[in-house]
User: Fold these one by one.
Assistant:
Number 1:
Amino acid sequence: MGDLVFVSGLSARLPGGAVAGASVVDGRLCLDVAVQTRTIFDKLQAVLREYGTGIEHCLDITVFLVDMGDFDAFNQVYSEYFPMETGPARTTVAVRALPRPEMVVEFKVMAARPHEARGSSLPGSSP
């Protein structure tokens, strides 16, 4: 299993606790699934890079959406990162809620580590 990287609970939560793509306008909470999806992809790229791989090595992605009405906007951003014909396996699931009311999308990802990265140490491990 050392050749796989599992990343779960990826959301648009930022350091300090704010959530990207969430703002209050005229006293109303406005949530932008496209901004949140791009933020998650930025975080995913950083995490995978830390473990010697990248999004081009993603094998499977589970997407949790609070509102399936956001699917088209989410899917448009998703297609900027993966071609629909050759991208990783993907399951999109509607959920009642995520841990914070400002969150509208969350990812769980499985990626492979390329052969050249398999011999290198993982973050936090001894060489």
Note: The chain has two helices and six strands.
Number 2:
Amino acid sequence: MPTDKGMYRPRWDLYVITDELLSGGRTHEEQARAALAGGAGVIQLRDKTASSARLYEAAVTMRRLCRDAGALLIINDRVDIALAADADGVHLGPDDLPVAVARRLLPGRLIGASAGTVAEAIAAERDGAGYLGTGAIYEARGSKADAGAPVGPERVRAIRAAVRLPIVGIGGIKVENAAPVIAAGADGVAVITGVVAAPDIAVAARALLAVVAGARR
């Protein structure tokens, strides 16, 4: 398992979150394989309804796919699954295990934290988070019912000025609106529907990566 000292260098440009409810019948594993083929640098396994056995099964396969691609596998919420499957880290929201506690349980692994405000970002950095997911940037349709009101790219700019951690913008991000998120200071974009609900996941991933690259020029 790569650690913070030996981990693959994170490629934050495109962070794809899998979702079997939005993917047109494609499994988490199939979504991950296609997103990695399209150039995603980070894959997050997110499933609020699957059994622990199913999550573990998916995570083990996705871990192998990500390692083969030189990408990172992050598990949403579940520290136990991250440990059991030897994933690269976990992503935590405000209702999950505190970042400081997860840091003690997952030494050497990435811990991502959702941060919608500057205060939340500062607290996450203080408590040992390795990166931030900031949003919802735009209105998120069909993916996260708890995403909250859109905060816009300007929230990324404010958080960027307050912390040193990598930031990925999340929430309603698509090809047509990703560039302002990068211009505001995000290191990458995290997407669910914009990639996994597309007819061709790999093509959608490449298109978003091209926008991110163009916004940095």
Note: The beta strands are 14-18, 42-45, 72-76, 89-92, 110-114, 131-134, 167-170, 188-191.
